Amino acid sequence: MSWKNAYRSFYYEDAPAPDDIVLKHDETALLVIDIQNTYLAPKPTPAEQVRWQPFMDRMNTIVIPNTQTLITAFRRRGIETLFARIACLKRDGRDRSLSQKKPGWNYLLLPKDREDSQIVPELAPADDEIVFHKTTDSALTGTNLRLILHNMGIKNVVVAGIFTDQCVSSTVRSLADESFNVIVVEDCCAAGTSELHDKELAIINMIYCHVVSLEEVLGFLTA
């Protein structure tokens, strides 16, 4: 199914097909969100490992290889490639937002220089690529990403990363509110489960972004 008809929510079931997308190189940036070592590390118990295994499998066989392909394609065309990662500036995490201090799974203490907070080696940023450190879900509200995008004349932001229903979604919504054109690459993203992934894509598609495949987004790039 084409991106023009996929991931339709109740609100957009009968909406007209969107216009074709053309991504001009000097107006486009790729943003890779939170693909960090901590999320690929073995879980503390066998039961947790089993619970998270489908996510791990998707990351290792689909998301990371596809994101490598996406990054390579953008770099070859000279298109800006940006990264965001969860990383607090204080070792005790006092600078984190409340959402990352709450007990439970979302409790995140990832000091910026620690190995588990680093972007996975397969997707390591190049020397001149910008990496934003955030202590919020949205990469826009928690950093100077907005200013940098405007300074570089960026109008279109292509998004990859994790988690679809959390930091990816929060960033996409923030970017849309700032009038950026947002494209989410479905097979370069993951949530904790495939159900959460698919549901969130249907929620954000057509209003906050367009959800497309890796093959489709590569076809949007101008020659």
Describe this structure in words.
The protein is of the alpha/beta class. It has one domain (19-220): Isochorismatase-like (Rossmann fold), CATH 3.40.50.850. It has helices at residues 37-40, 46-76, 145-151, 164-177, 194-204, 214-220; strands at residues 28-33, 80-86, 131-134, 156-162, 181-190, 210-212. Strands 3-2-1-4-5-6 form a six-stranded parallel beta sheet. Strand 5 (181-190), helix 5 (194-204) and strand 6 form a beta-alpha-beta unit. Helix 4 (164-177) packs parallel to helix 5. The longest helix has 31 residues, at 46-76. The radius of gyration is 17 Å and the shape is globular.
Task: Please write the CATH class name.
Answer: Alpha Beta
- Order of helix and strand elements from N to C terminus: EHHEEHEHEHEH
- The number of domains: 1
- Termini separation: 25 Å
Sheet-strand content, in percent, reads: 15-25%
